[in-house]
Structures are given as C-alpha cells and as structure tokens.
C-alpha cells in the first residue's frame, strides 16, 4: 500500500493547513472562551468547498472522496477541534445520509446548500436513556394520513441549533417488525417546523466553539415524503454512516494528536529550565518522540481504513481500529503536551489546554472505545 499523497491530495492538505494557521488559529481562542460558533470561519470553509469535498459536482460538491474530507479534518484539528467537528458533523452526519439514502427530490432540495456550507445538517440518533445502546430508541413517529407525527427527544446533537441549521434527520420508532422488534426509520425534520424545538447549548468540557444541543419533538408534523431511505431501515442506515464517520473522527483525532506534537516542539525549543532549552532534556525528548509515534501510527490506521472503504472492500474492523487507536493517541498526546507546558499548559490561552479539553470526547462520540473493541472482536469472529 502506497501511503504517499498524490499531488492533488497534497495541495488540498497544504491549502487547509494554511487556512487553519492563518484564519483559524489567531481568532479561535476567543470564540472558544465565549462559547460561540465561528460563523465567519464556517462561511470561509464553505467558500473553499470543504463541505462539498466528498460529493459529486451535480449536487454542488467538489467531486472528491471521503479521504479528501479526512485530510481536511486532520489539518483543521491540528489547530482547533471545534471547527473540525462542525465540518465533520455537517458532512458525515448532516449531508451524507441524504446523499446515500435520499430520493432524487430530497437530494435536489437539501444538498446544494449543505455541500456549499451555507446551511448545516444534523442527525439525531442518541437519546438521553440510550447512549451507546442506540437501538433503545423511544422517539416515535406515526403516520397520520400523509404526515408523520413525531414525539420524543434526542441528546448530544451537533449542529442542531445553529443560525444556519436547515435540516435534522432523526431516527424514530415507526412500527413493529414481524419478529416483534422495533421498526426504526429515519425522518427528515426541517428547522423551524412547529413542534420541533431545541435546548440551549450544552455547557461542555470541550468543543466549546461548536453547537451541541438536546432536541425535542412534541406532535411535530412533517410530510410522509420526508422519510429518508426505506421504512424500517433507519437504524441500519445510520450504522453504515457511523462506519464511515469513525474514519473521519480518527482523522480529526490524528490532527489533535499532531497538533500536540507541533505545539510541544515549538515550546521545547523556546522554554528554558535549569540553564538550557527544555528540548535538550532527554525526558522531554522521549515524551515528544512517543507523541510523534502515536500520531504517525494513528494516521496510518485511518489511511488504511479509508483505502479499503474507497475501493469498496469491507472496512468495519479497520474503521473501528482507526477510531480506537487515534482517539487514544489524542488523549495521551494531550495529556503529555500539557505536561511539557507545565503550568502554562493549564492556561486556556494556550492551544494545548484546548487540546486537553477537546480530546476526551473522541473516546466517546460516534461510538465509545468500548464499542470499538466490541466491533473488532465481532469482526474477529468472537
């Protein structure tokens, strides 16, 4: 397997790297502290075509692939994860389900704005009593003539209540399967639909400049034509979306892990202790070397998973491995980078403090580390 980037891929990586360094890094700390979504940055990412990277041009996309999205996510997360997760969720969870499972009419209506980044989409799967047990859905949707009537709630939903959110797709119980189990379907709910409300933004440990909310549905009525994909296949559809999304989250985690290396190297070359630069001390050298090893091996893991996905081979195990390894690397590197910085690492004005706060959720979101181990074991036949 050749892990060298093509000229086009390298050009994309360098473009996003420069954007993150020049446009995001100087201002994101303020947005983070204020808990504000940086709409200006989101608009610039849209103008660059980042929200359209893996979509064909006929839907307003850039005609690229999922790996291109991963490269962009990695470079953004080297500077800030709030911006990166806004892009990841908008593409992987907001637009991709419509692209994968939507009708021609649904794609034509919703994808142009989503792929342009002028609107954001979200996906409501998790519920307060469900967590990793996403099959424990309690939200219901019943047909009333040619209208779905939705009742229930969803938790921890990214991009659900921004000023530019246009559509949220939710899973809901729409009946009973022949075996007596729940029939779970996916239904699109446009923003502003009566009966659809959301909470104030969560007060989060990290990802403070991204939007995450709880959603509520109280006799929310949407057209029957808003069913996304096949009735009763909503849960299965989203599991396949999660497999892809785990590669994207792995890429984001690699970016955070590499950002920790970047910042630690810079600081180690500047900071003096005991009469010399701290980078000359073997304890610091070994710590940063271990951080680079974690970032490098995690990158190889998501590259390999993406390669299998793009050539149409089964990739569930590889996606789980990439997400497990990369999220662990992000947490370990954030901890070590904070240690390298000492007291300054505990100050929010430094990027490593944001990295430390942002890293932990990577072991939780889009499947916990325990879920990844379960998936890997199942793929091994256990």
From TrEMBL:
Cited InterPro entries: Acyl-CoA_DH_CS, Acyl-CoA_Oxase/DH_mid-dom, Acyl-CoA_Oxase/DH_mid-dom_sf, AcylCo_DH-like_C, AcylCo_DH/oxidase_C, AcylCoA_DH/ox_N, AcylCoA_DH/ox_N_sf, AcylCoA_DH/oxidase_NM_dom_sf
Domain called Acyl-CoA dehydrogenase/oxidase N-terminal: residue spans: 6-117
UniProtKB keywords: FAD, Flavoprotein, Oxidoreductase
Cell wall biogenesis/degradation listed as a keyword: no
Names of required cofactors: FAD
Domain annotation Acyl-CoA oxidase/dehydrogenase middle: ranges: 122-220
Protein name: Acyl-CoA dehydrogenase family protein
